[in-house]
Write a structure and sequence with these properties.
Strand content: under 5%
Keywords: Cell membrane, Membrane, Transmembrane, Transmembrane helix, Transport
Organism: Actinacidiphila glaucinigra
Protein name: Carbohydrate ABC transporter membrane protein 1, CUT1 family
CATH architecture of one domain: Orthogonal Bundle
Subcellular location: Cell membrane
CATH topology of one domain: MetI-like fold
Main location: membrane
CATH class of one domain: Mainly Alpha
CATH superfamily of one domain: MetI-like
Amino acid sequence: MAAPPTTGPGSVAVDATGGGPGRPRFRPRRSAPAHHLPRPAARAARRGVLSFWPQYLAISPFYLVFGVFMLWPVFYSLYLAFHRWDGIGEMQFVGLQQFHFLMDDPVFWLSIRNTLAIWVLSTVPTLLGALVLATLLNSVRRFKSFYRIALFLPNVTSIVAIAIFFGAVFSNNFGLVNAILHMAGLPEVQWMSNPWTIKLVIALLMTWQWTGYNMIIYLAGMQAIPGEVYEAARIDGAGPVRTFLRITIPILRPIILFTVVISTVNGLQSFTEPQVLFGSNAANANLGGPGQAGLTTLLYFYQSAFSNNDFGYGAAIVWAFFVLILVLVVVNWRLVQRGRKS
């Protein structure tokens, strides 16, 4: 008797007469294999980008506002830098004359020197103080949230209110600092008259405002460092100073780079501080305090564009200053990166 044909997936049926293999018979599958199913990404690609138009429509208001009120003014200011315009009459194309005059303008170079001096006097103590405060706060066990809020509070305080407060504290005649110096038997200082003390007051204001902001960033980076690293350093006999210099600083180097770049951009854009301290003071004939010692580049731009109605020259000042900020940011970035590689 002939054996019954064997059936099954992938098996070959044998002819009942013994004449050899017959037609292969496979069990039909009711569903396609999982690896043949279309993936969501493939289906989305077939539908096309336009199928997500509701999502694009939902986020479009931000990009419209950004394009109209931020991106378009940037390109328009570059166009305006090559023209002479008082804001009312017709524009007159002057080419590079605005920039040629800018290179020979002594007030512009005075504002650059003032801005760089204030930037150095404020950025260095801000970053060093923020690093020290973050280290101390990282070792605190109790009331850590209170210290965070107290140190970060100056950053969310109105800069106008801070400037008014500092103007009252460092006033030449009735300032709190001079009152303390007089009580201690020390000579009073003309904080708002001397060129260097003017820069020092502005730098102190900026340091007081931004130290807590950078401290929070450093503290977040320190808390992300595993405790096993410090434990291994203590086992090897490393003290607190060596641990800080050999472990904490190298690990925080990318964060330090970020704070250096942000502090460079913010420090060079000082405007509100000298404007509030000296801009509305009728006793000072020059904008930026006596001798224009507090005249920063953005304050000079404001004076040229909105006080003298020379919008073309104001745009040239801003773009020249933008190039300066870009160069300083790149230099700081390269210096920090070189230290990281070494």
